[in-house]
Each structure stands twice: as structure tokens, then as C-alpha cells.
Amino acid sequence: MAGLAGAGGGWLGSEARTQYAAMATLRWQMFRNGLRSHKGAFELGARTVSYVLYALMGLGLGTGAGAVTYALTSNGLWRLLPIPFWMVFLLWQLVPVMLASFQEQFDLGILLRFPVRFGSYFLLWVVFGLADISTILGVLCCTGIWIGITIVRPELFAWTALGLAVFAAFNILLVRAVFSWLDRWLAQRKTREILGAVFMVLVLSVQLVNPALHRQRRQAHAHPQVYASPADKAMAQAQAYQRTKAELKAKYEPWLETADAVQKWLPPGLAASALGQVAKPQSGMALGALGSLGLLGVYVLAAGGVLAGRLRAEYRGENLGVAPGRKKALRRQGGWILDGSGPIAAVMEKELRTLLRTLPLLYAIGAPLVLAIVFSAAFLRGGGPEGRPFPLALPIAVVYALLGFSQMFYNNLGAEGAGIQVYFLSPTPIRTVLLAKNLFHAALFILVAFLAVVMTSLRLGIPDGATVAATAAWLLFALPMNLAAGNVFSLTMAYRLNPGRIARQRGSQANALGNLLAQVVVLGVGAAVFGLCWLFDSIWLAVPIFLTLAAGAVFAWTRVLRNADAMANQRRDSLIATLMKTE
Amino acid sequence: MAIAAIQTCGLTRRFGALTAVEDVTLSVAPGQFFGFLGPNGAGKSTTIKMLTGLLEPSAGTIEILGQPFWSGALELKRQIGVVPEGMALLGRLTAPEYLRFVGRMYGLDRETTNRRTEELLDFMQLANETRKLVTDFSHGMQKKLAMAAAVIHGPKVLFLDEPFEGVDAIAAGMLKNMLTGMINRGATIFLTTHVLEIVERLCSHVAIISKGRLVANGSIEDLRAGVTSTLPGAEREQRLTLEEIFLSIVGAGGQQEPAQELSWLA
């Protein structure tokens, strides 16, 4: 066996080290070769800009976490220390879902054809995730917490670092374990459909539960009081605040105590507890802190075990494509969903079927809708001048709904895969295909925007006619503008969307950055017009302005459609190659 | 003189400094089963991509059924069917959904599309897999589905890039019968494959491409006669197989001298 690296040794043996070096070289060569094309070079530039933005975001979040921790610990409020830990935990676990489609991923499954030990495979799996955005943000937040505590209690420097390191290890392993299992379930059609249905029910439930919860509050505001003077008003408001606070405390304190008792035994609570107990001078507390840290270590091992279980199955060559299935029914499926035999109906029907089977797209549509509902609560609490609901809440809710469609608008060929060739082979022009996709996406968006409007209205009351008209006029501008820009990006910076995965998606930083810039322009114009008209108390004025802009946007959209075939043919090779890429 | 089903003149495709296909001029008569052969990387798939509108030629012209062909020649595209290299399948659809989609993209009406879909699924023995997503199909099943999609609109010219790869013997026999039937009804088939026995059995004419250039073109008998005439006297009596003709024209490449063998292999 001359020439073989030493076959002995474990996951740090000479063979494993050779393999790690080969992987590092492979990554470097892939990166270097990617720069050969203009697109690759542009990707690098976009990625650099994105990482700078994420770093700034991370520094902001880290500073915030540090400031909160400093404020709590300097005031002796160690019992509230779990709050920043829970925030960091949620950030760490949720960011990968939100940014999954924008991150470049490398599928380590290709290693399985080589004689790689399981330990090495596991290690590579963990190490390759260390440069992702959630880890960067999480580590920066942990650093902020560490600095916050160290400033107040310098003697806890080392212990805090240890506690945070264990907490970080738990988060890294947990997020990877969760997504590896999600991917495994999504690889099977049955579980994919179940998860999709559960997800849709959750999205709808959140929307239905929220208005019910806030109905009582709306009723309370239904009969506004008249006060003799501003001082009377202020006093009445202060009394009402104290009364509400007392009521809330009486009502929710038992719940909070129960929640606190539970969270203490969960990782963020344990990490906070490990630091909080060692900060107290009582005897026995240090032992308690050690116990908390030890328990946190058990969680780390458990998360690692869950991840290892999944990877072990992959390592053994589990084939998800032929995962155990039930006996298939032999009955034929029904006819077409959308009537009409033309290609527009065909593409629209195909889009609908694909959407219903593509969880990342369903998620992208649903998640911002949930956010719209959550954020409208802020307006409910804050309100506008003189206690009225914030009048721009409606357009803002619609904007959130629009954001969910950005992936669909700006990468509308991404889910085609090898099927992209059908469009070039068939006698249907690409502009017809894009027109059908645009019509379908626009119809879907209008449905979602309508839902957002209904939910916002239920929570904040029916907006005045001027706001509704201005929002509708803005949509007439924003929608064709997004569709036009989306068509251009879809043809020039497409990336393949893996419909069975939420995590480990292959994204395109260039597409994401271009998408962001286009959204900034569309939203910026909208915000400027709305802001100015609101400032001058003439929201109606926004309608003709937006309608004028809409005419320009529709013109741009038709121009793009007219040129779509030329653009597609010019980039046909790279478009087909990109969307067919499987590695 | 009959109009050629496929006619190329000086067809060339360059990728930067690399010339993948250079000055390919060939003519395929209507009703011909035409085999397009070549070693790996010779330019077969690149040629077929140019002939079907998936790739723009750097130079040269293409005519299909006597009309200039380019990516925007939509009416001509109705006359051709293709099984491309990547099969052009949509993984998130079931087989009937995909076939109905393709049928409508080619402008077939609802009734015809549904009827042909049923027939094709039965013919391709995929009728029991109508609930399964295409992405969950085996490679052979995907090939059969790609073949079904290529013929659903009844093309006059069919381009097949490695259609038998990964297909079992039973299905391969069935596909061969279908293709022969199409030829008998006047269709033209342009086939690339590495399985030379299939070409020898099905095709009447072949062209061989090597390093991007056409090195042979004609009927199998003409090529056989050409190669045989170069052999020493005693060997001229034997009937050469297509594989021997192919190796003789392209160059064996695999006949290594002992010193050039891979020393570490047992």
C-alpha cells in the first residue's frame, strides 16, 4: 500500500489530518476557481459587503447584550441574568432559518465516498459551521455579555469565559442538530407534507389568536375619556398604568414563577445560573455554580449526541430518496388545477404545485406575515399622536408581507433545477414563462397582503380611506418594480434552491445584496413619500404620486419582459449550468 | 433532392480559449436513425445542445427541416423533441403532472395532453408510480420519463443524449421498439450513446466526433469499407464490428504498452 498516508490513528491521526488538509485545499481551490468568472468575482465582493454588514449587526447586538448584562449585574439584578442568555439563545437558533437561503453551503455528504472516519466526518461537520452568520452573531453577543460581567466583577473573568464557552458550544451543536434532523424529515415526502401542514396551521393560528387576545384592550379604548386639563389626564393615565400593572402582576405572576422554575433547568437559564451563583458570596453557591455548569455540559453532550445520531445514519449511507415508504396507492391523480391548456396556465399550475411542496418558500411567505402581526402589536402599544393608532401601521404591515416574497421574486427560476431546460427547449418564449410566474406571484402576494391588511385592521382598527388608498397606490408601484427587478436578477444571478431543505441551502450573496439594494430603493421611495405626506397631514397626496411612479414601474416591467428572451439567451449557458449544479 | 432533417454547416463552439466543437458540417436525411459517436469530452453533448437551442453556436449555421434554427425559432421547436444531458425534469412534480406540464408548454390541448400522458405512463411502465415525486424516482425511471416528455408532442425530429444510460434491459428493449416505430412512421432520430451495440443495431448512419472535429460521417457499411481497406490483406476478410471501426478511427488510446501500465494495480 505504498503511497497511502498512515491508515492508523483516530480522528486526529495522520490519515485524518491528511483528509482535513485535503478538505481545506478543496475549499480554497473552489473559492479560487470561483473567481475565474465575473459572477464569481462579484459574488466575492457581495459576500465581503454582506459580512461587513453582519459584523456591524453583530457588534450592535453584542454591544446591546453587553449593556443589558452590565446594567443588570451592576444593579445586583443577577436573577434577571437569564434574560440576555435567552435572547442570545433565540438569536442563535432562529437566525439560520431567516438567513438560510442567503448563505453559501457546502454539502459534506460528498465525503462519504472516501474512507473518512466517523469522528472526522463529525468534526468537519461542526467545524464547517463555525463561520456561519448565526455563530458569528452569537459569539459576538457572548463576548458582549462577558465584557459586561467582567467590567462589574473582574474576578469572574475566567469563570464567565468558561460558562459562556460551554453555552456557545451547546448552541452550535443544537442548531446543527435541529437542522440536520429537519433536513432528514424534509427529505421524505410524507413528513415534508406533514411539516408543511403543521407550519401553515401555526402561521394561521398566530394570526387568529392575536386579535382575540387584544380584543379586550380595544374594547377598553372604545370609549375615550374627556379630561378637564392635561394634568388631570396625566394623573388619570398614571393611575390607570399603576392599576393595569397591579392587575397584570396578580394575573401573570404565578405563571412567571412557574416559567422561571422551568427555565432554570434549561441551558440559557443554567448558563446564567452558573454565573449568578458564583457571583454571590454565600458558601455553597460555588458548588451550585459548578453543578449548573455540569448540567449545561450534559446538555452539550445531548445536543452533540443528537447531531451524531443523525450524522451516523448519513455516514452509514442512509438513502433518503428511498426511505421506508408505505405501499403507494395506485389511483391516478385528478386533472389540472388551473383550467386552460396554454403555457401560462401550465406554468402557473406548476408554480402552485411546486410552492406547496417547497417548505423554504412557504416559510418565506409565512414568516414575515407573522412578523407583521407581531410588529403591529408595537403600534398597538405605542400608538400615534394623542393615543390614536399609528396611521402608517397598515403600509408597514404590507411591507413585511412584501419582504417575504423577495426570494420568490428575485430568484423565480431557482426551484426549477434541471427543469430549466424545458423552457429553452419548448416553443414557449421565456417572457411568457416569466409573465406566468409574475402573475402567479403577484396573485399570491395580493392574497397575503390582503391577509396582512385584515389582521392589522382587526388589531388596530380599520384605517382611514386615505391610508388605504395610498397603500394600494404604493403597491401598484412596488409590485411591478419588484417583479421587474426580480426578473432581471432571476435571469442574471440565479441560484439553485433546494426545495427539501431549510438549512444547508446554496445561496447567492450577489443576488441577496442586489435584492437588498432594490428593496431599499422601493421602500425608501415609499417611506419618503408617505413620511412627507404624513408630516403635512395630506396622506391623499401620496396617491397621485404613487400612481405616477406606478406608471413608470409598469413600463419598466413590460420592458424587462420584452427583453427577457434576449437576456435569457445571452446567459443561457450559465443559467442552465447554475440551476443544474448538484454538488 | 429531399430537404435534410438536420443540416449543419461549419458549426463551432468555443468556451474561452477552448474550442469544444470545430467546423462540424453534417447532414441527416429525413427518416434516418443517426448515431453521433465520440469519446468522452469529444463534443457530442455540446453539439446536441447547439442543435436543440440550449447553447448558442460561436459560428456556423443549423437548419432543421429545411429552416434556419436558432433559440427563438419557436415553430421549429414544436417539431423537435429532446432528451438532454440533464434530462430537464422538474423534481417537485409527479410524473403525470410533469408530462401534462410539458404537453401544455408545447401547446397541446387538454384532452390530447391527458390522453397521451396516460398512454405514455402505461407504455413506460410508470403507471404505478403516479403519486411519487420525480425527485424520488430511480435514474432509470427518470430516463423513461424524460423520454416520454420528449415524445409527448409527436416530434418529427428527436434528439437523444444518452437515452439508454441507467435503463434496464426490459425498458431498453421497449424504448428501442418505440424508436424504431417512430422511424418507420418517418421521424428522424439523432442519437448519442456510448453503447455501440445499440448504434450498430438501430442506426443506419453514424458520424464520429473526436476532439471537437468530425472525423467520420456516413453509413455504417461505408465506414466499415473505409476502415477495412486500410487493413493488411489477411485481415480484410473479417467483418469489423462498430466498436472496432470506432477504435480504428478515433484511436484506441487504451492499448497501453507494458511500461505505461499503472504499476500499483494488482
Structural overview:
The complex is a heterodimer of chains A (583) and B (266). Chain A is mainly α and 583 residues long. Helices cover 74% and strands 0% of the residues of chain A. The radius of gyration of chain A is 27 Å and the shape is globular. Chain B is an alpha/beta fold. Chain B is built from nine helices and ten strands. In chain B, the strands form two sheets. Chain B has a six-stranded mixed β-sheet, sandwiched between helices. Chain B has a four-stranded antiparallel β-sheet with strand order 2-1-4-5, covered by helices on one side. In chain B, helix 6 links the parallel strand 7 and strand 8. In chain B, helix 3 crosses helix 4 and helix 8 packs across helix 9. The longest helix of chain B has 16 residues. The termini of chain B are far apart. Chains A and B meet through helix 11, helix 15 and helix 20 of A and helix 2, helix 3 and helix 4 of B.
Tell me the series of helices and strands of chain A, N- to C-terminal: HHHHHHHHHHHHHHHHHHHH
Largest sheet of chain A: none
Rg of chain A, Å, rounded: 27 Å
Ends of chain A: how far apart?
30 Å
Quaternary state reads: heterodimer
Mean pLDDT of chain A: 78
Taken as a percent bin, the fraction of beta residues of chain A is under 5%
Class computed from helices, strands and strand pairing of chain A? mainly alpha
Number of helices of chain B: 9
Largest interface: A-B, 49 and 50 residues
Low-confidence stretches of chain A: 1-6, 319-333, 383-387
Give the number of DSSP strands of chain A: 0
The secondary-structure class of chain B comes to alpha/beta
Helical residue percent band of chain A: over 70%
Instruction: Assign a percent range to the helix content of chain B.
Output: 25-40%
Strand residue percentage of chain B: 15-25%
Give the overall form of chain A: globular
